[in-house]
Design a protein that fits this description.
It comes from Aestuariibaculum lutulentum. The protein is mainly alpha-helical. It contains 24 helices and four strands. The protein is globular. The protein starts with 6 loop residues before the first strand and ends in an 11-residue tail after the last helix.
Length: 489
């Protein structure tokens, strides 16, 4: 029998953090090392998803969770506690899963209604390769600041930008990297963002102090990102310019293109700006696009199925392919509907099972506290925070845990060093929020890859803002630039 006297727990909002005094750091790292070894073997030696078939990554995460459960069993953690934490994790991603289904439906209805083709048609005439990548960063940054959501930004303008850039012949990894860089800048700096509110709450400072202080590292990182994408745009080889007129003509011949189609995305963005729940805003976008498909694209609906209604239902639920004379557009004018999101959703569920067990056995807290013991200087404290956020993003597969656990664990350490709490809140965002999207099995990495249709490892190297942010915060700490002391307040 397990009496669980070795277990202690604290809560931060709805997130439970469990400590296990009997668990060693070596034992806590066993599931992480096995998980990463299996993922690495699958990526580098078994060609991606062939090891266990299509759902290899999901199976690997569940196997990692099984290893963690065995470690927990030998450290007197009951199955009940592990199942409880799995359930808490699954509850936390219920809304994101609904959003993913709606994004699949949105992509399908926006395709058959002509919304996405219209975005591509007009975008090709405005966004040329010379300015496309930096413009994408700026556009996504503005939308994300206004909405407070990198996920919503990717699901709306992000999809359109990937379509436009693909038609221009720009590598999809570059496009997705630019979209994600801008979206996460806006997500970090927006007072409407959940992570931007969560980080100061964990550190013990207020929202606007946090945002002002965070701008010290975030703005320079964005400037470097824009310079990089500007240089990249000036030197990128494209194939879109040569046959641009042909692409435009093909779109015109296939769809009825009119500026009125932009009513659909404008309504969705307006609903989000007025703080409507994302599920409601996206549902409105699906329904409105379905109506517009009847009005503007009856020929397309007739081609896809026996009845117009069945064409719309199929676009919402399953694969849709609109064939044109241009192969590049054929790849672009395809959608998987809700069915196309199943792989991503199962990956998120599997990640939550692994993260729940890791939290339930106390491994996440052990990894964080062990990192804290390694460093003793002020710079070491910042480095430890960054390392903890990265470790939890990898091991727990969730950006919220990557903010909450280090935030609660390190708050007193920053005070003991005489550091103002905004140092901690800024570091949590610079390393916890933005790096989550670089990890394929993290909920953010899985979501962005699924929505944008670009593999995480393909765009990760181009998501300059995201991987540069932790280095920027460490550079400022090493040089003691704008490191606010408690006595300064």
């Amino acid at each position: 029998m397990h009496d669980n006297k070795n277990i202690s727990e604290f809560e931060a909002g709805n997130i439970h953090v469990i400590k296990n005094k009997e668990l060693s750091i070596q034992e806590a790292l066993i599931p992480v090392l096995i998980l990463m070894s299996m993922l690495a073997y699958n990526i580098f030696f078994v060609d991606g998803q062939e090891w266990f078939g299509t759902y290899t990554n999901q199976i690997i995460l569940l196997l990692g969770g099984a290893v963690a459960a065995i470690v927990g069993f030998f450290n007197k953690v009951s199955i009940k506690i592990m199942l409880k934490e799995i359930w808490e994790n699954l509850k936390s991603v219920f809304t994101p899963i609904i959003i993913l289904f709606l994004v699949g439906a949105l992509a399908g209805t926006w395709l058959i209604s002509g919304v996405i083709p219209a975005m591509v048609y007009y975008g090709l005439q405005v966004l040329n390769p010379t300015i496309f990548l930096p413009a994408s960063v700026i556009i996504c940054a503005i939308i994300s600041i206004a909405t407070g959501s990198s996920w919503t930004t990717s699901a709306t303008v992000g999809i359109a930008l990937v379509g436009i850039g693909t038609a221009l012949g720009i590598d999809t990894g570059m496009i997705a990297g630019a979209v994600i860089s801008g979206a996460y800048f806006g997500d970090k700096m927006s007072p409407l963002s959940d992570t931007t509110n969560l980080a100061p709450a964990m550190a013990g400072t207020d929202l606007f102090t946090h945002i002002r202080y965070m701008s010290i590292t975030t703005v320079p990182t964005l400037i470097v990102t824009l310079v990089f994408f500007t240089v990249l745009s000036l030197n990128v080889e494209t194939s879109g310019n040569a046959d641009l007129s042909g692409l435009l003509l093909t779109i015109e011949q296939t769809f009825k293109i009119t500026p009125l189609l932009f009513i659909v995305p404008v309504v969705v963005i307006a609903l989000i700006l007025f703080k409507t729940k994302p599920t409601i805003a996206l549902s409105a976008g699906v329904l409105l696009a379905a109506v517009f498909s009847f009005i503007f694209q009856p020929d397309i609906l007739n081609q896809l199925s026996d009845t117009k209604l069945s064409s719309i239902i199929n676009a919402i639920l399953t694969d849709t392919q609109i064939t044109t004379e241009n192969e590049k557009l054929n790849d672009l004018f395809a959608s998987g509907g809700m069915q196309g999101m199943i792989w991503t959703i199962l990956l998120i569920i599997s990640a939550m099972v692994f993260g729940g067990i890791m939290d339930g056995i106390g491994a996440l807290a052990k990894i964080t506290t062990s990192l804290l013991k390694v460093f003793h200087s002020t710079f070491g404290l910042f480095a430890s925070t960054v390392g903890s956020c990265l470790a939890i993003n990898i091991s727990a597969s969730d950006q919220y845990l990557a903010i909450v656990i280090p935030g609660k664990m390190y708050a007193n350490a920053y005070k003991e060093k005489g550091l103002a709490p905004e140092n901690l809140s800024r570091t949590l965002e610079d390393s916890g929020t933005v790096t989550s999207v670089l990890i394929p099995w993290n909920t953010c990495g899985a979501y962005q890859s699924g929505v944008l249709g670009v593999d995480t490892l393909h765009y990760a190297g181009y998501a300059i803002f995201n991987w540069l942010s932790p280095f920027t915060t460490l550079l400022f700490a090493a040089l003691s630039i704008k490191i606010r002391q408690l006595t300064d307040k």
